[in-house]
Specification:
Layout lengths: L2 E5 L3 H12 L5 E6 L14 H5 L10 H6 L3 E4 L2 E5 L4 E4 L4 E3 L2 E4 L3 E3 L12 E2 L3 H10 L5 E5 L3 H12 L3 E5 L12 H13 L3 E3 L4 E7 L2 E7 L4 E3 L2 E4 L3 E3 L2 H5 L8 E2 L11 E3 L4 E2 L14 H15 L11 E6 L2 E7 L6 E7 L4 E8 L2 E8 L2 H12 L6 H5 L11
Parallel strand pairs: 1-2, 1-7, 2-3, 7-19, 9-16, 10-11, 10-16, 11-12, 18-20
Antiparallel strand pairs: 4-5, 5-6, 8-17, 13-14, 14-15, 21-22, 22-25, 23-24, 24-25
InterPro entries: FAD-oxidoreductase/Apoptosis, FAD/NAD-bd_sf, FAD/NAD-binding_dom, FAD/NAD-linked_Rdtase_dimer_sf, Reductase_C
Keywords: FAD, Flavoprotein, Oxidoreductase
GO cellular component, one term: cytoplasm
Length: about 400
């Protein structure tokens, strides 16, 4: 397997390239970066980047590291996969042959669908998105954020901290409804309200309002008008499966892969946000949008391509920094039937333990990193935990970890 090509130079693609070299791959290795920038960390875009702008510390690797590891980093865009010829046709017209191809194409922002279109609405996915928001924010007084997920709330905390009037609007009935328990939602809603953020839940956007071509607010389906001179939409992402679809690979809200992250073509793997994969931590295949999953899947495929294949089995975990609070989640909360609170939400330090059929499946920790680290080990090992012990702060959870 001499020629390996990786499409996508985000966390997954970049991690894979260096993991392949560390694992002993000596053949040609090409990393295709569709952005006009060196590969960079994405989590700071909704936080630190907005304060400082671009800095070298945001790079995943310095430019010299690619040359030193004999990784050909090319700034081009893939147009088509020719599976019969085993080559990728690039925007520049040059074919890129491969023996094994890895799709790390990530996800793209879900666009706001309103009658007048989304012109003038900001999104936050790339460094250019973040730079546009950073330039616009100083002149803004009224900021409206559409979407109360991680990205929306992280930016809400930043904007409120910068002295802006902030409204968050979401179709769901609570914050982070897709990823967090009711207890976590309630806590973060309270904390954001204390910081001056206002919420409108179960609200539908009917249109964006403009004055002389400039965004000045939006109208809700209820008829209410919310004024704004800066609107940021964080309404989720969709898997970037365009190349896979055109190439005839199996997709289903993500590129479908097996336990080894191999697609329906044995010469093509897929990793990261674009991938739907089977996991023992859910009853059905899932697609996850997280740095942890991207990096772990990259390391798994590197092992496979260097002769040390193992089924992908990493525990999912996530984090979100919102103002002064750090949320860390181990496991997947979906399907839980019992929640137990350990610690004190009133003192801003607690964890929520989620069980299904008396089995621990997830732990959400707020400003409680010790609980999070133990939880990752407990869930991965399928350790039995009495819910009463989980709620008892005097019980030492680490005694259960061998």
């Amino acid at each position: 397997m001499d020629r390996i090509v990786i499409l996508g130079a985000g966390h997954a693609g970049c991690q894979l390239a260096f993991a392949l070299r560390a694992g002993g791959h000596q053949g040609a290795l090409t990393l295709v970066n569709g952005e006009d920038a060196l590969p960079y960390h994405r989590p700071p875009l909704s936080k630190a980047f907005l304060t400082s702008g671009w800095a070298e510390e945001f790079l995943l690797r310095g430019e010299s590291a690619f040359a030193e590891s004999r990784i050909q980093l090319i700034r081009d865009t893939a147009q088509e996969i020719d599976r019969d010829r085993r080559e990728v046709r690039m925007a520049t017209g040059k074919p890129l042959p491969y023996d094994h191809l890895i799709l790390a194409t990530g996800a793209v922002n879900r666009r706001l669908q309103v009658p007048s279109g989304d012109q003038g609405v900001f999104y936050l996915k790339t460094v250019s998105d973040a730079e546009a928001i950073r330039r616009a924010l100083p002149e803004a007084r009224q900021v409206v954020i559409i979407g109360a997920g991680f990205i929306g709330l992280e930016f809400a905390a930043f904007a409120a901290g910068a002295g802006k009037a902030v409204d968050v609007i979401d179709l769901a009935d609570r914050a982070m409804a897709r990823t967090a328990s009711h207890e976590i939602s309630t806590y973060f809603e309270r904390r954001h309200l204390q910081a001056g953020v206002q919420f409108r839940f179960a609200a539908t956007i009917s249109d964006i309002l403009r004055k002389e071509g400039t965004v000045c607010g939006l109208r809700l389906a209820s008829g209410e008008v919310v004024e704004a001179d800066l609107i940021v939409a964080g309404i989720g992402v969709v898997a970037n499966t365009e190349l896979a679809d055109a190439g005839g690979l199996a997709t289903d809200d993500g590129i479908v892969v097996d336990r080894y992250l191999t697609t329906s073509d044995p010469c093509i793997s897929a990793i990261g946000d674009c991938t739907r994969f089977p996991t023992s931590y859910a009853s059905h295949p899932v697609r996850l949008e997280s740095v942890q999953n991207a990096n772990d899947q990259a390391r798994s495929v590197a092992r496979k391509l260097t002769g040390k294949a193992l089924p992908y089995s990493a525990l999912p975990w996530f984090w979100s920094d919102q103002g002064l609070d750090k949320l860390q989640i181990a496991g997947l909360t979906g399907g839980s039937d019992r929640h137990v609170v350990r610690g004190s939400p009133e003192e801003n330090t607690f964890s929520v333990f989620s069980f299904r059929d008396d089995r621990l499946i997830a732990v959400e920790s707020v400003n409680q990193s010790a609980d999070h680290m133990v939880a990752r080990r407990l869930i991965a090992a399928q350790t039995l935990l009495d819910p009463a012990c989980a709620a008892d702060v005097t019980f030492q959870l680490k005694t259960l970890v061998q």
